[in-house]
Write a structure and sequence with these properties.
alpha/beta; Rossmann fold; Alpha-Beta Plaits; 2 domains; nine-stranded mixed β-sheet; two-stranded antiparallel sheet; 11 helices; about 30% strand
């Protein structure tokens, strides 16, 4: 089983649309993992039917038992996250500010404070309309620990791939270079970078590749909307050549992408034109690289 992660340095490059197309082309060889847990949208194109869902707990939250609390204020004095609110002399915990460090519980003279496991979201095992397993998740509003949730999504996807002897775990990673991306890259065999010919596109491509390079993972790149700015596209190609990143393909700007999305379809099933052909050829390149 090989794990292929598709990421981008910034949002809006077409990463998820391309990943969904590769999932369609991969067919029953693929287990799909949507690791963009902060803003998951793979389900829009894949229209999965949820088979299992569970709450995800990570970290802790302080809770004050008001029946025991003497309102002495010691918790307020020691909290360095400003997570203790005081209203009308009553102390309570601000859930969004609490880091679950446990210091307040330690200093409470009457043991009125306890730490409880924190529910930070939900994760799902679903079946796409292409009869593929899709593991995805939804991080709670304002919740932390997105990296841990990503790791859980990936681990479940790998377990399912092993159980059903699937050849590839295809991961749609988060944009950027933060904790969820680091978690997405951990254990990957191959990374596909999706970029666009803009100043920010090139800048963020360099940033995310610096991260990929620290993991020593082989990388390749797709330049989306490559014809919109030929000069910037050439700069990206020069960077790829310099860093020995495989240049997979250039995709032209085409409004068919948008039309396909409005119908909740991938481009490879919506249209048999140039972009579909390029994506089909690119997917075969990726599979060949990963196999070897």
């Amino acid at each position: 089983m090989k794990e292929i992660v598709i990421i981008s340095g910034k949002g809006g490059t077409g990463k998820t649309s391309i990943t969904a197309s590769f999932a369609v082309l991969g067919g029953k060889d693929v287990v799909l993992a949507d690791c963009d847990v902060d803003a998951a949208d793979m389900h829009i194109l894949m229209q999965p039917e949820i088979a299992k869902q569970e709450d995800f707990y990570s970290g802790e939250l302080a809770v004050i038992n008001q029946e025991i609390c003497t309102q002495c204020g010691k918790c307020f004095d020691v909290c360095r996250f400003d997570a203790i609110d005081v209203k009308d002399g009553i102390h309570s915990v601000n859930e969004l500010s609490c880091e679950g460090c446990g210091y307040c519980a330690r200093v409470c003279p009457v043991d009125a404070i306890t730490n409880i496991p924190l529910n930070v979201g939900k994760w799902f095992i679903s079946n796409t309309r292409f009869n593929q397993p899709l593991i995805h998740a939804k991080l709670g509003v304002g919740a932390d620990n997105s990296g841990k949730l990503v790791a859980h999504v990936k681990n479940v996807a790998k377990e399912i791939a092993d159980e059903y002897e699937r050849e590839i775990v295809l991961v749609d990673g988060s944009p950027g270079v933060g904790c969820p991306v680091v978690s997405s890259l951990s254990g990957a065999h191959f990374v596909v970078l999706v970029t666009e010919p803009t100043v920010s596109g090139l800048h963020d491509l360099k940033r995310v590749y610096e991260l990929v390079n620290k993991f020593h993972i082989p990388a390749a790149c797709i330049i989306n909307k490559a014809d919109l700015n030929p000069d910037k596209t050439q700069e990206i190609k020069d960077f790829l050549q310099k860093e020995k990143i495989i240049h997979l393909t250039d995709l032209p700007y085409n409004e068919t992408f948008t039309k396909a999305m409005t119908e909740c379809k991938t481009i490879v099933e919506f249209d048999n034109g140039e972009i579909s052909d390029k994506l089909k050829n690119t997917w075969e390149k990726i599979r060949e690289i990963v196999r070897n």
